[in-house]
Amino acid sequence: MNDRIHELLYRNLQEVFGEGDAERRRAAIEELYTEDCVLYVPPGTFVGHDALDKFAGDLRATHPHFVYAPHGEAQALHNAGRLAWGSGPRDEVPDYTGVDVIIVRDGKIEALYVFLDSVPS
């Protein structure tokens, strides 16, 4: 289970939130998330594939040139995992950082909690 949780964390970062192509992003969401998934982010709570897809697509559109990079290694514990990351222009200091925490059910992400950090200037 730990390997699957690590895979879900890394793939979610790149293939969902880092993906600019809408079709590839939607395919990844369907593969990685349960149908009744819940996304918890500072702006609110989003339920299901459609809501997640819209949120990720809208977010991506605000900074299409940003990349997401893991900071450190993913960690897994029972049916949960976490991964710290940063986002910004490639090869530059991240504009913002955060931590993703996932809850996994039947090998898919059931819930994603996104904690955002402030980046010192």
Automatic annotation (TrEMBL):
According to its UniProt entry, this protein's organism is Paraburkholderia aspalathi
**SUPFAM superfamilies recorded:** NTF2-like
Give the superkingdom in one word.
Bacteria
| Source lineage | Bacteria, Pseudomonadati, Pseudomonadota, Betaproteobacteria, Burkholderiales
InterPro entries (UniProt xref): NTF2-like_dom_sf, SnoaL-like
Q: What is this protein called?
A: SnoaL-like domain-containing protein
Q: Which residues form the SnoaL-like domain?
A: 15-109
